[in-house]
Specification:
The complex is a heterodimer.
Chain A lengths: L1 E6 L2 E6 L6 H7 L18 E4 L2 E4 L12 E3 L5 H14 L8 H14 L5 H8 L10 H11 L3
Parallel strand pairs in A: 1-5
Antiparallel strand pairs in A: 1-2, 3-4, 3-5
Helix pairs in contact in A: 2-3, 2-5
Chain B lengths: L12 H5 L15 E7 L5 E7 L1 H5 L3 E5 L30 E2 L5 E7 L2 H8 L3 E6 L36 E9 L2 H7 L2 E9 L11 E6 L5 E5 L4 H12 L6 E4 L16 H11 L3 E4 L2 H6 L6 E10 L5 E13 L5 H10 L10 E10 L13 H19 L3 H8 L20 H12 L1 H4 L4 E3 L2 E11 L9 E8 L5 E5 L8 H13 L6 E4 L17 H27 L7 E3 L3 E4 L5 E3 H9 L8 E7 L7 E11 L5 E11 L6 H20 L29 E6 L22 H13 L10 H11 L1
Parallel strand pairs in B: 1-12, 10-11, 14-15, 19-20, 26-27
Antiparallel strand pairs in B: 1-5, 2-4, 2-6, 3-5, 7-15, 8-13, 9-10, 9-12, 13-14, 16-17, 17-25, 18-19, 18-24, 21-22, 22-23, 25-26
Helix pairs in contact in B: 5-6, 8-9, 9-17, 13-14, 16-17
The chains are: A alpha+beta, B alpha+beta.
Amino acid sequence: MEIKVILNHKPVTLVGEKDEFLADILRNHGRLSIRKGCNTACCGLCTVWLDGKPTLSCNILGIRAAGKEITTIEGIAQEAEEFAQVLVAEGAEQCGFCSPGFIMTVVAMKKELENPNEADIIHYLTGNLCRCTGYMGQLRAVKTYLGVK
Amino acid sequence: MKIVGKGIGKIDGMAIATGKPVYTDDLVMPNALVIKLLRSPHAFAKIITIDTTKAEQVPGVACVLTYKDVPNVRFTVAGQSYPEPSPYDRLILEQIVRYVGDEVAVIAAVDERTALKAMKLIKVAYEVYEPVLDFETAKGHTSVVHTETDLHCNFDIGMKQQLNVVSSQYLEMGNVEEELKKCAVVVEDINYMQAQAHCMMETYRAFSYLDHAGRLVVVSSTQIPFHVRRKLARSLEIPSSKVRVIKPRIGGGFGGKQTVVMEFFTALVTLKTGKPAKLIYDREETFSCSNSRHAMRLTVRVGADSDGYIRAIDIQGLSDTGAYGEHASTVFMVVGQKTLPLYNKTNAVRFMGDVVYTNKMPGGAFRGYGATQGTFGLEAAINKLADKLNMDPTELRLKNLIKAGESSLISQGKLLGSSSLHRCIEKGKELIGWAEKYPKPVVNGNKVRAVGMAVTMQGSGIANIDTASAEVRLSDDGNYTLLIGSTDMGTGSDTILAQMAAEILETDMGKIIVNASDTDVSPYDPGSYASSTTYVTGMAVVKAAEELKQKIIEKGAAFLEVLATEVEFDGKVIRTLTGEKELSLEKLAERMVLGLGKLQLVGNGTYGSPVSPPPYVAGFAEVEVDTDTGKVSLIDYVAVVDCGTVINPNLARIQVEGGIVQGIGLALYEEVRFGKKGNLHTNSFMQYKIPCRKDIGRIHVAFEECFEPTGPFGAKSVGEVVANTPAPAIVHAVYNAVGVRINRLPITPEKVFLGLQDKK
């Protein structure tokens, strides 16, 4: 099955089975930043943007992305790197396996929320699990990145 | 110090944070076979017949392997130095299956779909046995989990196979029963710690292939490459010279990857087919078919005299190792080993008990490794004792805890090299506001707030056993390559080891290239576990860098035609003390690899420690209990840490915060639960709850540095000790709030609510 999408600002034809999830199709397409952590839509590792909205790519069939705009971390390289630098300076990437999905959610939050406070940030990011950091360092990094006091 | 003590970012940070392809699954070659495992639906059964004919006929299937296709040589999958203390009670595949999820057949095919299709066509007939599921009745159960006659132990660990006892232990100093009789106050407490799942975000995975020389190469997300190599060689009956194990970036381990969970299967398929093969466990398999923290019951008695001096401690334990004995005896031993030295005003101490086999997923290594269970048991009892003595629990501890320069009954005369634990307690009291908040709870309608606390210790490496090597090489261009065999699983150990080398060589981080870990290339290291990397591998790195520095000075002096004592090296230039002559490091490096020098400079270091210096944590919790529902909310957690010198404050802080949250999960949310037939109920994040951002309150971390004389730059470990205090401290806070003492973790609203009803 062929699925025509806009992937990271370029028209692309993805190839996958009818019952295949977007995460797997994207990984097969070489987007290796896509990680899967749970199969139950709990962990947030596989987060990409679908038409600009954070979406769990392991929980959506590839065919549902047809005609849509998909953004992975490779598509927002500059913004991702900007935040990654703050995250790394804080030491809060740790194993890094959840970082791409986390960063996709953080950058989306920056676009979506105006002047979020700490509680808004925690709420927005709740769907992104991390087993290494204990979240506090990530919160410090996000606050620094957004200039939240 | 210029680089040690600085909170610099991890050397691999940007790559892993931005999703670069550096983990195991990112590196698999595209033509690799995909492996799926058929697993037992029964907790205890014998395979009577297994028919793979139809499965093998599915187009695209490369092989279907059963117990008939594997060597008949037993081994342990526990990642421990040889000879391992864990029993050799496993085969790669066996006719007997001992837990729901135990492997029955290995299917390799061109893709996952084909492998799954073939799996459904395998016909298995089982003779089902009555499983042993309750660890408290496992000893002497009519079912015997391991009846094989070729089970082997390298040491006497107290194995009583026919009784389902893997290990039986008894350690007593002084006479505990007599001493307890003399005590003015004695408390007894029985506590249960549940099994806990590691939940590293990257599940278990590996791939393998044959290289240009026909050797087996296994790329694995593992904490223990050298142990993997040794175990593959033994279990597959191939020379270890034919095996190479490479560890790329790892997405978390927490001890789970200190066990060889699944590399056997990819290796087996590659050897049988000659083709590359990969195996990735999904989350359900990771929950159901790997390993967990050992569930334990601990009965603790503590006695004190009327002045509040603790005179006797008795810990009697029972540990559930599940279907196989990985880490069974050692995790259990650590329960006593990392608790009994804490309170050293004792006249008698005892640790005893059994580890039993049951038909459940095996226990294994998990951050804290027995100290977590032991701390929970002992600290709960100490808090109960403080209550009975009518003493502030912090005062009781300040009065009884060991100090630097002292010894304990089980320290074999060795004096404690360093401790700032007393300062940690003082600091923690200040940060949590102990003076205002203890002991009186604050009641606001149906919400009650109170504080609680606990202390803990761990070790730094395994004394006299685990020994690491490191090599620092001066390259032709004047850069250094640091070769190590430890396994950074996200902790930042590659970075802090490079910081140590850079500090000694007086260079900057950019000049140190870190290479780890590859059994063909890396110097031997048991791997990153037992809180060993900063301390043990760190000392090896320090020694290697110092040796190289000395060689640079000697060879530099020779080129300058003066004595080594007549030059100094500032990291860039070797210069005579008079300042007349000098040689740059780059020039020296170039000369050494060319005709003039003919000797590439290498520094080597090997270190194993006769002691395992304990790091300490004083943990303080403030909770709010809803008396209508029993729900416990954690408001604040304060952890004050003694890890000796802090090598990298940012990375150390994250280690602490992460460990505390794992401990909070253990205290409040996480529980591995099995059904009546031994099937795992908690096999996804829907059923098994790890803390999310909203579940943890605020965590405050402080370091009380001290100098450990045997450690690199005075450092001790930090990775494990941080997981131990939340469970007892939160239990204590809940008790102080509403008077309900929880003895079975996790502290669910239901248990607190029922406890409140009982009080009425």
